[in-house]
Amino acid sequence: MIVDETLVVRLEHLAALSLEPEERTRVAADLTRFLGYVAELGESEAAAPDDAAAEAITAALRPDVVEHFAGRAEAMAAAPELDGTAFLVPRFNP
Amino acid sequence: MSGPATANVTLALARIAAHDEALGAFLAVDREGALGAARALDAQGDHGGPLTGVPIAVKDALCTRGLRTTAGSKILAGYVPPYDATAVARLRAAGAIVVGKTNLDEFSMGSSTEHSAFHASRNPWDLARAPGGSSGGSAVAVAARMTPAALGSDTGGSIRQPASFTGVVGIKPTYGRVSRYGLIAFASSLDQVGVLAADVATADTVLRVICGKDPHDATSVDMPPIAPLAKESDVYGLRIGVPAEYFAEGLDPEVEARVREALRALEARGAVCVPVSLPSTRYAVATYYIVASAEASSNLSRFDGVRYGARVAGESLHEMYERTRSRGFGAEVKRRILLGTFVLSSGYYDAYYKKAMGQRQRIAQDFAQVFREVDVVCTPTTPTTAFRLGEKSDPLSMYLADIYTLPASLAGLPALSVPCGFAGALPVGLQVIGRPWDEATVLRVAAATEGDFPARGALP
Prior knowledge:
heterodimer, A: mainly alpha, B: 14 helices, 38% helix, 14% strand
């Protein structure tokens, strides 16, 4: 895939960045080279992951599931610290 | 009042004063704060903590209360955190004394410490060479014996690679073993705080101090503590996996020779080396740079000139954001933000990010299968010894040099680099990768290797 300067300008807008023209040229070339490397690897021929085997290793990661809380009490129960009615957060002006 | 803590800190500050101008390990040295803490400890008498009076350096990606924290970036120049990272707080509670903040690649994005916004660090074994990165300043501080240990962070090898390049021990624990609270985020599903130390016993002691569940980090896990390291490291009967994919094209012959010598020495102690295969290793560089850049593009959106750090004025709010971020971030950080934005953007997400997440699963699955047969996996930490400053000007060539450290990071596994001799005048590291939560076995293998390859001389 070729990354042209038009695409880089779009990415800059999405990322709230504004590159100088020479930076933009360099980034376009760097991204093109990296994506070319990714393309060279091609599709993996490996079988689909064995979930049971991977489970032990990814146990520290939380499942990517959107949870629906029944109400305020359940949501508050997940807070690291509470003062009884609200979340406790670090002071910013100690 | 003078005492052992003051003496330790005075010695550390003297070594920093003598050597840091040439090495550039530190971004900030807290001379008065460290001496004050040492005097207070000495006045207190027996503190009883496992690190009482031990001077420690801290990577400048970790927040330190009242001491500037920049993450190696101009966008955070002048930022003074109002709190300590949990790992730092636990060190202080154990009696350790923070002497300063160490240099790093900006926002931990790099493998040489050349991408720091402030200055490059230099390898004590050859000042023309890089110390590795991104925790390069911490590695240099330990290698030059400015401090006996330092905190670092490892997202794709940022502790192990500089440890290998500078001849020190560096351990990245299992993801979740150490709280990330107060670590300035790069890629949250990969970032992990760890230790660089002059020897395995010190790394073990510091790691056991900083690990454990923290209510401020939901990804930290309440696991049983790491078993203490035995005086005599017994590896008899231990099964060591040796993956063919890590001894392939691109590996320097002298590095390979040192690593194979280390494996033979472990066999002489009764360990059994078993050939294994980790076939998804070839996808690690692409997978890592897609996943980590995607997370970085999200994490670094908070640096907008509003809440903390530098601000460059603009005619509108969006213009202020753009000007602040464009002047505040360096070239490598911008490159990765834009790559991350690209792989998450509409039309490219499935082709890049989603596919990379599948590859990440396959890499983890490879390890899970291998760990049914072996207790640890041993590999070279890096394909080469330390490269010259400026040698890797092409970003892709720098990324490819991370090939051996990335898979363990993507799988969330504990991994360590321990010195195993020299190629010419430069250190070589053996990487030991363990099962999830089995840092104890990783440290045991490292201690045995350390016994087989004692450091050459006192200092580089």
